[in-house]
Design a protein that fits this description.
- By secondary structure, the protein is mostly helical.
- It is built from 9 helices and no strands.
- The termini are far apart.
- About 80% of the residues lie in helices and about 0% in strands.
- Helix 6 packs antiparallel against helix 7.
């Protein structure tokens, strides 16, 4: 493995760095985007129970805000519960935008890695071909060992770039879909709470 890495030349190291960053982001997003952490089940029912019992004080709202992304969105609506339904929905939408930004954390970096690593691989290919043709100019075609180093750099960097880019692209698209589903679930739960508080839906 070390020989393969060394044969990739200088360009292989930025590709390796990109692979380490991509793996770290993928692991972190798998941990952070768990549905049970983002949209805890039964939270709206609990909030409705607190509202009926008059227990939605500032301390409880502060704990709810820090409880989960869904809790943050619910609190945005709850602090405006004395206003009309549209005002609550606007507050929830603003909070949703902030939550979406947090849920998409690092995804732009992962998408960038998916785009640049094939280009780094292409750059390594070009540099390897340059080395190979330079060697041909110096020693001719009689020494295959001299030519093999440039060809090896070209092939290794291309393969390495694609090996990093393909999983990064797949997981970038996957996490985008997960975020969309979580946001939809949170908005549905928040609107359910609004309807319940305004007497338009039975709990």
């Amino acid at each position: 493995m070390l020989e393969i890495i060394q044969s990739g030349g200088l360009i292989i190291w930025p590709i390796i760095l990109c692979s380490v960053i991509a793996m770290a982001i993928i692991g972190e997003r798998f941990w952070s985007l768990q549905a049970k952490k983002v949209v805890p089940k039964g939270l709206v029912a609990q909030v409705w129970k607190w509202a009926k019992e008059g227990k939605l004080d500032k301390q409880r709202l502060a704990r709810l805000r820090n409880h989960s992304p869904l809790g943050l969105i619910l609190v945005a609506g709850l602090v405006n519960r004395s206003h009309n339904r549209d005002m609550m929905k606007d507050a929830i939408q603003e909070a949703s935008n902030r939550v979406i930004h947090d849920l998409e954390k690092y995804l732009n970096t992962l998408g960038t890695i998916a785009e640049i690593t094939p280009l780094l691989g292409l750059l390594g290919t070009v540099m390897g071909m340059i080395r190979m043709f330079a060697a041909i100019g110096e020693v001719g075609l009689g020494n295959p060992m001299v030519l093999s180093s440039g060809l090896s750099e070209a092939l290794v960097t291309t393969a390495a770039g694609l090996t990093v880019a393909i999983p990064a692209f797949i997981f970038h698209r996957y996490f985008r879909g997960v975020v969309d589903e979580l946001v939809l679930s949170m908005e549905q739960e928040a609107l359910k709470m609004v309807d319940v508080l305004h007497g338009e839906r039975e709990q």
